[in-house]
DUF2267 domain-containing protein
Amino acid sequence: MTGRHQAVGAEATDDDATELIAQLKELAGADPADVRQVVAEVLAALDRAAGGALREHLPETIRHDAGLDPAASARR
């Protein structure tokens, strides 16, 4: 966490979202498919950490990409 985040607390802002998007793009490269894969993996990890509570709040396409929908789980 940066000093700005520590001073403000855990409040997320539009600036935080923009920064996260930029970091994900840099991490995954310029290929949108790579970005989508990284985001799917992060969401799947967050869902596991939350005991499966995150998946019910995600759109169907994102659940599918992250392997969190029942059909994807059955295929694994």
